Amino acid sequence: MLETGLGWVRNWTDAMVDKRLYPTLFGPAAADAAAVPTGHRVDYVGQHRVPCLKVVPQRAAPMKTAVYLHGNAVSLGDLAKSGLMQALADKLQYEMICPDYGGARSAHGRNLDTLQVLHAQDVIAATVQQSAGPVAVFGRSLGAAIAVRAVAESGQDVATRIDHVHLISPFKSLDALLPAWALRFGLLTPHRYDSADAVRHKMMGHTNFSVYHGSDDTLIPASHARELRDARMHSGWSSARTTVDVINGMTHDPLPFARHLVDAIKARCDHK
């Protein structure tokens, strides 16, 4: 009886976490999340036909393709208007493919997380299949956790084609951001995203791993980036580069420091 009662409470508290993790999927924000400004290209990618914003360099043909998993309070429209994707595409000479998260709106808790990862894998696999060379994967904040799981849990035929994973303002695990007492007493579902475990035990050894974090990020402190680096270094893989760049003054919002962030990413892409 107690377990049944706790299960009801856990479902309710997990739903509250979902609404904080995925604010563009629930409530009033969901209606606006799908809108993308006129003039921006949206394609439907993969077997699940996931809506994706596609951004290409303005002055040259792309030399590589990357999949970018965005943060939790960001929509494709926000990405299109922010200019960050265009700045990355221009600086790196990449085509940037940015999936939407709306297709998993009907799920909750671990099922919601798993659907997000499966949709990300679908887009990554389709991108790999259509690309002549290796593919990069980016993730920011919650998108970093989705990116890590998607790459780490991909089949070998896809994983071997991913040569670089870039994480911007990631967390080492979702549990580290949730109340410890609620996890201890079973009021929240634990282990929903454990990026440290994924990079330590599951990510392939050839994949370069670069983390970028703001020194003034109070939402997710820069210590999470260093712990992810340490987890990767302790994995036993030595064939790939593992780096952390702490960007002085940057908070959890990268846009005011976009130029510094893009320059740091460019330097890591050039120096493999």
Count of distinct structural domains: 1
Q: What gyration radius follows from the Cα positions, in whole Å?
A: 18 Å
Ends apart, CA distance between termini: 57 Å
**Low-confidence parts, pLDDT < 50 over ≥5 residues?**
1-5
Helix content: 40-55%
SS-derived structural category: alpha/beta
| CATH superfamily heading | Alpha/Beta hydrolase fold, catalytic domain
Neighbour order of strands in the largest sheet: 1-2-4-3-5-6-7-8
* Main beta sheet strand tally, sense and closure: 8 strands, mixed
Overall geometric form: globular
Q: Return the string of H and E elements.
A: HHEEEHHEHEHHEHHEHEH
What is the CATH topology descriptor?
A: Rossmann fold
Indicate the mean pLDDT.
86
| Total of helices | 11
CATH architecture, please?
3-Layer(aba) Sandwich
Can you count the beta strands? 8
- Strand share of the residues? 15-25%
Walk me through the structure.
The structure is a single chain. With 272 residues, this protein is of the alpha/beta class. It has a single domain, classed as Alpha/Beta hydrolase fold, catalytic domain (Rossmann fold, 3-Layer(aba) Sandwich). Helices cover 42% and strands 18% of the residues. It has eleven helices and eight strands. The chain has an eight-stranded mixed β-sheet, sandwiched between helices. A hairpin with a 4-residue loop joins strand 1 and strand 2.
